[in-house]
Amino acid sequence: MNRYSLAAIWAAISTILDQGTKLLILEKFPMWSSKTIIPGFFNLVHVHNKGTAWGVLDRDDISWQVPMFIAITLIALGFIIYMLKKTDERDKWMVTGLGLIGGGAIGNLIDRIRLGEVVDFLDFYIGTYHWPAFNVADSALTIGAGAILISMYLNRDNATPAA
């Protein structure tokens, strides 16, 4: 399978899983609701975020964050395509990582275009400390970044020094 097909498959899987789970949350969970799944560790919640990771810029008093994040996402998707063109066909870790990051970016982009904010619903916590709620797209972005780090580690001896 060529790198474009592999990346597209990972992007499609992550986007479909992300949007499917968000649709379920939107249909089944009232806003701000919470359901304990694993007591003391994991809840399903329904929150929205106009900002970026961990709620940065999640404010109602600024109107430019949604257009800015849409523009940044489109630029990032262009960069992902560029990186995919430059990636060796055999580097499955890099290709998978780029596909997952692309899929995660597309999943959150769909929310921003459709809703003006991102739906988050995964709430992990220990005691009273809650990690900020996130979604499948955020997970795909994180796993994709991890795959790219693995690729960089595995290919560290093949790197060309900067001029």
Q: For the CA atoms, what is the radius of gyration?
A: 17 Å
The tally of strands reads 4
- Which spans of ≥5 residues are poorly predicted at pLDDT below 50? none
Q: SSE order, as H and E?
A: HEEHHEEH
Number of helices: 4
The neighbouring-strand order within the major sheet is: 1-2-3-4
Q: Estimate the helix proportion, in percent.
A: 55-70%
Report the principal-axis shape. Answer: globular
Mean pLDDT: 93
Distance between the termini: 33 Å
Largest β-sheet summary:
4 strands, antiparallel
| Overall SS class | alpha+beta
Strand content: 5-15%
| Number of discrete domains | 1
Descriptive notes:
The chain crosses the membrane at residues 64-84, 93-110, 130-154. It is an enzyme of class 3 (hydrolase). It comes from Pseudodesulfovibrio senegalensis. InterPro entries: Peptidase_A8. This protein specifically catalyzes the removal of signal peptides from prolipoproteins. Strands 1-2-3-4 form a 4-stranded antiparallel β-sheet. The longest helix is centred in the N-terminal third of the chain and has 26 residues, at 3-28. It is built from 4 helices and 4 strands; from the N terminus they run H-E-E-H-H-E-E-H. It has helices at residues 3-28, 65-86, 92-115, 136-154; strands at 34-38, 42-49, 118-126, 129-130. Helix content is 56%, strand content 15%. The protein has 163 residues and is of the alpha+beta class. The protein has one domain (3-157). The mean pLDDT is 93.
